[in-house]
Amino acid sequence: MIEECLAVEFDVTGDDCPLAAATELTDTEIECEPPQLRSDGNVLLRFTAPPDDDLAAALDDDDRIRYLHRSRGGERDIYRCLSKSPCVVHRLTDAGFMAETLTYRDGEERHTGAVVGNDVLQGVMSAAGDAVGVRLRRVYPVGPESPAAEGRWGLTSAQAEALQVAFRMGYFAVPKAATAAEVAAEVGISKSAFLERLRRGQAALFEQLFN
């Protein structure tokens, strides 16, 4: 049995992906769930973004996107579609990467997830490097206190990280010791993305506590 599991986060550039292209055109950030690869090679996508008609138009005009649906709601819209252009994340999955969140901004991507062991991590990096530019941003062991272990609370690793960093920086203190923008900068995401992760994480915790 392999005892080492690593939480990893890395940046990807040069991926020929419709979501990356749309963020480069519109200066909008997209938060995407792990894509679902169909047996015919097409991909089912579910992602969220701030309300932006230009983003919706850019996606709708992309010939690689089919069956685009947009649900308007509050601070972020929810999109569902089929993509005829599989992203590099599927190569990483084949190499052993367990994706949890994908963030797209300015034509680039940030992938967060986990791998089982350093040898698998090296294989994932090699698989990414063969197709696109990749830079390892963070890697740390999964342990009792790590974000990836928070699955028992219904959190994703990204939500757990946002909550932990916010707590460490004093975001929840009275008075606040850090603003949402400062915590977001520390995590390396936009303020809107941080606030969404915070709300989703808090909702998951409250459901466990009060249900």
Structure description:
The chain is of the alpha+beta class. Helix content is 37%, strand content 28%. Strands 1, 2, 3, 4, 5, 6, 7, 8 and 9 form a nine-stranded antiparallel sheet that branches. The chain starts with 5 loop residues before the first strand and ends with a helix.
Q: Keywords for this structure?
A:
Arc Repressor Mutant, subunit A, nine-stranded antiparallel sheet, alpha+beta, globular, 211 residues
Give the SSE map.
Layout: E1 6-13, H1 18-26, E2 30-32, E3 36-37, E4 43-49, H2 53-61, E5 65-71, E6 77-83, H3 89-95, E7 98-105, E8 108-115, H4 118-129, E9 133-141, H5 157-169, H6 180-187, H7 191-210
Antiparallel strand pairs: 1-8, 1-9, 2-4, 2-7, 3-4, 4-6, 5-6, 7-8
Helix pairs in contact: 1-2, 3-4, 5-6, 5-7, 6-7
SS element count, helices:
7
Strand content: 25-35%
The description of the largest β-sheet is:
9 strands, antiparallel
Shape: globular
- Helix/strand/pairing category: alpha+beta
Mean pLDDT: 84
Task: Write down the domain tally.
Answer: 2
What radius of gyration results from the CA coordinates?
A: 17 Å
Helix content estimate: 25-40%
